[in-house]
Each structure stands twice: as C-alpha cells, then as structure tokens.
Amino acid sequence: MFKKLFGALSGDNKPENKNYEAQTSNDNYENDYEENYQEVEYDPETLHGTHYSVEDFDAEVAERADTWIADERASGENLEEKDIQNIYFNYRREVYTEWNNCDSDQMIRFEHANSLKYSGIQTSGFVKVDDNNLFLEPVHGVDLRTYTAMCLKISAGIDYLEVCKAMGFEPVIWEELNTIWPQRMGEDNSFTVTTLFGQYYAENVTVPQLENLKAEISEEGAANLERIKTDRYFYEELAGARQAAYEYGIDGAQWILDTFGINLADFQSVAMQWMTEQNQNWNSEDIIEFSNYQQEKQKEYAAKFAAEQGGNIADDVNF
Known about the structure:
mainly alpha
C-alpha cells in the first residue's frame, strides 16, 4: 500500500487513498478548482487561509498522516523517517488544497512561506532568523551582512586589499572570513546562512566603511544593468548567453562584463532578485515561459560562439 501511495507521484500506480488521489490527479483537480473556486483571504505571513487556525490545520494533517502510517505498519511495512516525512508532506498538500480550494501555484507559495517550519529548510524570500542561531554569530566582529557587502565589492572588481583597508583590518582577517562563512553555509542544514547571504546579495547591501568604494561602470553598462532589473526577458537572455559561453570555454562572467558592461556582483544580485520574486509570487506558467526563453537564447548564443570558434567539432563528423 505504501508503494502505491508514492507510485502515484510518478504515475506508476493510483493510490488506494481516495483523498490522496484527488490531490494528485492534476486534470481533475484543476477542473474542480475552476468550477468551485471561491475567494479566500490568506494570512500575509503564513499564507494559511484566515478561515481556519494553523493549529486545526496541523492537527488535521497529523490525523490523516498518522492513520495512514498506522495502517502501513499494521500491514508489515517498515517505514523510515524519510518515508514518514513524505507522508506528512503529501497530506499537508492535500489538506491545504482542500481547505483553501486553491490551485497548485498557491499551494507552492504556501510551502515556500512555511518551508522552515515544515521541512527545516529556508526558502529565498521567506527567511526566518532565530536570534540564537550560532551559525550567524559574527566572525572577528564581522556579521553575515557585512561579509556579504565585502563579497559584493570584491565580485564587482574592487581589489580585496582595498576592501580590507576600508574595513580597517589585515588581509589575513579576510582570508579567515572567507573560509569560516562558506564553511558555515555548508554545515547549516537549514540553509539559513546560505539563503540569508543570497537575500543580502539581492539587496546589494553595503556598510558605511565601503560606501566610498565604487566599481567603475560605463554608461552603457549602467543602462543594461537597469534593464535586466526590470526586463525579465533580457535577464534570461543574458543568463542563457553566459551559460553558453561557459560551455564553449569562455569565461561567461567576463563575457557579460565585456559585452554588456555588467560586472559579476551586479549580475548575481539581479539573479537573486528575480529568484526571490519568483518564489514569493510563484506562477508555473511564467516560470515555464522564462525557462524556455532562456534555453532558446542559450542555443542561439551557442551557435554564435560555435561559429566564432570555427564550428563545433562534431560538424566535421559524418555518420
């Protein structure tokens, strides 16, 4: 029975649990949603419907999940912790879509807003910080926000020695900062440090000590930078071009700088802005459209780079 439940996710089997079948059958669900849709007011922080309490929601999920788990164990199934987590995950989706009569995009937005609570992992755009998080303790008096500001300046092309001088400490301190903070990112299973670093990067944060350090940018570069902040298609084009460049042995970040005047720090900052916006306003149709557009542009630029290099190696191979 347990295998049937999760086989439904890949279409291998239909589950015996009728409620679960309703939430995994996308065509039927979308039809029911369109026919029975009613406007629901959502809490702006949790994205739970305001017509029920979070406690009642969690209790309903637990009741359904625990009943299923008990049946599985009674039938001889040996459930591991990851199996139990997946059962709760699927029933949480089921109850949320039932109680809010919402589409799958709203459900994903809800999952992003509650990712730390229900999965223990942070999602960009919904970072929640515990004041007692040891991973966020300053290193040599430098907190994560300041470390991110330093990274932004260095990624923008400013020599790290200038950054250290402006901060008032020796280069060896930067070396330790640039070892310990990435190490914490790797050790933090909640991804709080990594996600918060990305959020600060998207905000293009700075600190007073570094405000006078400005990366040079041409008039054309400034115009292109403003354009990728507001024109998602232009950003996707450059993202596709950069990836194509790397695949042809070209430094994609340098190519973007040389061709469009946008440095690595600014480009990555905009990339994080778009990702955060996408997480907060999840729309599957838009995501697919932008993904397809980037792939199309990547192919176009790949052909351009291939032509500049005399064609692909495979062009000379006859089959």
